[in-house]
């Protein structure tokens, strides 16, 4: 009996990365970067516990005396403004996530992430001399699955936190949801760091052209 093998997707005139996916990728990169920058400002650069005394020193040098309560009010203005940016970027991320799901169903077959994942699994199961490269390709695809799941968690928990003060049921869950949201943020930060390092390493070794492919579209889909 001849063993059954999965058919290799036919090479078409389509590029590996569609225009929609490329636009989504770079827009999503900017939004996620913006979200992480707002967190960096809130918890590191302009940490409210340390900014307050610094405000008092600057004002005192100008001959203006503010009480701790008054300075706390000033720091809240800064904090709230940054949180407004964070919330706005979070809503943008929610829209991008919906668009990514829609893109998966509207792209041509070989351009879909699901098709690329199935092809990576098939090549890995074949073994052969390219087993190590195929294993790496499959692990990269699974890391993207993990990233998409993290985005889902970030978006869902973020939306819950936005409306937690207006909905009693959500308010009761606010503390737990906030913990999950913050933990997922660290996971996204770790993924982003590993992704950048991986891309730079690939570009400097034998997998050159990854960045170019995400700009120009790459080779034919299904190749």
Structural description of this entry:
The protein has 223 residues and is mainly alpha-helical. It has one domain (19-216): Transmembrane di-heme cytochromes, Chain C (Fumarate Reductase Cytochrome B subunit). The chain is 76% helix and 0% strand. It has helices spanning 19-45, 48-61, 68-106, 113-126, 131-163, 168-172, 174-204, 210-216. The longest helix has 39 residues, at 68-106.
Distance between the termini: 29 Å
Helical content stands at: over 70%
Based on CA atoms alone, the radius of gyration comes out at 23 Å
Proportion of residues in β-strands? under 5%
Subcellular location: Cell membrane
Family: Belongs to the HupC/HyaC/HydC family.
Membrane topology: Multi-pass membrane protein
Main location: membrane
Characteristics of this structure?
mainly alpha; 76% helix; transmembrane; disordered N terminus; 8 helices; 223 residues
Give a nutshell description of this structure.
With 223 residues, this protein is an all-alpha fold.
How is the topology of this model organized?
Layout: H1 19-45, H2 48-61, H3 68-106, H4 113-126, H5 131-163, H6 168-172, H7 174-204, H8 210-216
């Amino acid at each position: 009996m001849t063993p059954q093998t999965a058919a290799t997707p036919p090479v078409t005139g389509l590029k590996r990365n569609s225009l929609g996916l490329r636009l989504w990728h770079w827009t999503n990169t900017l939004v996620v970067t913006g979200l992480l920058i707002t967190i960096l400002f809130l918890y590191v650069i302009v940490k409210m516990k340390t900014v307050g005394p610094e405000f008092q020193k600057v004002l005192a040098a100008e001959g203006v005396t503010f009480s701790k309560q008054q300075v706390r009010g000033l720091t809240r203005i800064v904090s709230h403004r940054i949180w407004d940016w964070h919330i706005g970027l979070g809503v943008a991320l929610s829209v991008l996530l919906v668009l990514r799901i829609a893109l998966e169903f509207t792209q041509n077959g070989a351009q879909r992430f699901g098709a690329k994942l199935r092809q990576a699994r098939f090549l890995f199961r074949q073994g052969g001399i390219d087993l190590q490269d195929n294993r790496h390709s499959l692990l990269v695809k699974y890391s993207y699955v993990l990233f998409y799941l993290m985005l889902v968690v970030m978006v869902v928990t973020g939306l819950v936190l936005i409306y937690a003060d207006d909905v009693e049921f959500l308010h009761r869950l606010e503390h737990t949801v906030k913990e999950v949201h913050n933990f997922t943020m660290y996971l996204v930060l770790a993924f982003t760091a590993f992704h950048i390092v991986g891309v730079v390493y690939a570009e400097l070794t034998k997998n050159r052209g990854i960045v170019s492919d995400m700009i120009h579209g790459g080779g034919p889909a299904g190749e």
